[in-house]
Amino acid sequence: MSELVPEPRPKPAVPMKPVSINSNLLGYIGIDTIIEQMRKKTMKTGFDFNIMVVGQSGLGKSTLVNTLFKSQVSRKASSWNREEKIPKTVEIKAIGHVIEEGGVKMKLTVIDTPGFGDQINNENCWEPIEKYINEQYEKFLKEEVNIARKKRIPDTRVHCCLYFISPTGHSLRPLDLEFMKHLSKVVNIIPVIAKADTMTLEEKSEFKQRVRKELEVNGIEFYPQKEFDEDLEDKTENDKIRQESMPFAVVGSDREYQVNGKRVLGRKTPWGIIEVENLNHCEFALLRDFVIRTHLQDLKEVTHNIHYETYRAKRLNDNGGLPPVSVDTEESHDSNP
Fold this sequence. Notes:
This protein is of the alpha/beta class. The protein is built from 10 helices and 9 strands.
């Protein structure tokens, strides 16, 4: 009998190290045009950005968002009169707008939460907000697992939550801590001190330091979260924001006044005009640059890659690894008697 000779095991493939080629030697390739291609595509399709505002009534939430995007994107609650009742529970109101600037279209959705923190008993008033945020993740997940998927899934996920802190000058309320403790795990929270013009410069500086300390002591992570810094450059830039700017002390106004021959957004007081975009008066410009000009794309990416992925993994795990029931199937079940 002939001996069986075992077949030699194939050696595992070793990935080749990328070889750096000086493209100048071979002529122009054109890979640098990818940025321009992406820009053109984005200009055609536009993009979504969904921002939530949370805080007690009277802190100027709607005014600040209108100032942020220089248009009437959020309805003011100033029309409220004594005959109308304060909502007994937290309501969620989403208002969508299309803003265009320089040929780029942005579908902006502002999610307001009237009734938050306005009750005598505010216990668990953050729950409807967390439920809404998770419902948007669920909606996106169901669209993703559909066999016939849409080419572009509508994105209603909350990319950013501006949390308005009352300018007491003392410390955070238990409600503030409770909200941020629960919601920081599911959404990017950016804390802002509202109506900062009611405090002196010294009071503002001390209050900001106190708020940062309280958030740290209570283990509350606000955006930009330390663990998501991608490199040293990110860490250096974000450390400065975390240690100096947060929480942003802001003033909002959509009224214009004449100051030194220029039209400026501001608030008129007996002692002068508080200019919204003047860094010597408040930190609105820092907040605007942070949310729109430097970190908007990152807010969307952290929402998708971290918060949504955490929800998705938990949801699939709870479902035994199976995708959730599609929207169409669910609706057909509901319609059956």
